Amino acid sequence: MSHYCDLAPGHPFHGPYHDHEYGFPVAEDTPLFERLVLEINQAGLSWLTVLKKRAAFRAAFDGFAIDRVAAYGEAERARLLADAGIIRNRLKVDAVIHNAGVIQALREEHGSLAAWLDHHHPLPHAEWVRLFKRTFRFTGPEITGEFLMSTGYLPGAHRDDCPVQARILTAGPRWVER
């Protein structure tokens, strides 16, 4: 079975994501929200499709500004569903807007989405999935796992012999024992 570390290097979209983002710890809420939005939109599609549309997602969702997205109403929802640059799926669009509101509430209680994640870390994958299903919309096992792996909360983004893995370990992902 091919691994992302075999397929991504040198690819115009996968390469930069693999080499500089995937698996590295993320501590700020805006990039965490972006990653959650991208993972939700990947469901049923290829990651390449999402990476190719990433700039369009960033523009469509106001740079992933959580407070702005949480305030979206029917006009913004209609705009998003008409935007051919993104994935026009009502359930996914609704989930993104809803989840922005959830993140606002988590910030009120914990200070940030990152602090909420840190509060629950470490959990086994199955517990993370249960927590995400109780908290967010459109976050099943694969979306939750990829989100947490891609942001440094769960291991497995890279093979141990991948040169990027050493850089990730130096960056101190949450899954490494401290």
UniProtKB/TrEMBL annotation:
Transmembrane segments: none annotated. Keywords: Glycosidase, Hydrolase, Metal-binding, Zinc. One of its GO terms (biological process) is base-excision repair. Zn(2+) binds at residues 5, 18. GO terms for molecular function: DNA-3-methyladenine glycosylase activity; metal ion binding. It is an enzyme of class 3 (hydrolase). It holds the Pfam family Adenine_glyco. Its EC number is 3.2.2.20. It comes from the Bacteria. This is DNA-3-methyladenine glycosylase I. It comes from Halomonas campaniensis.
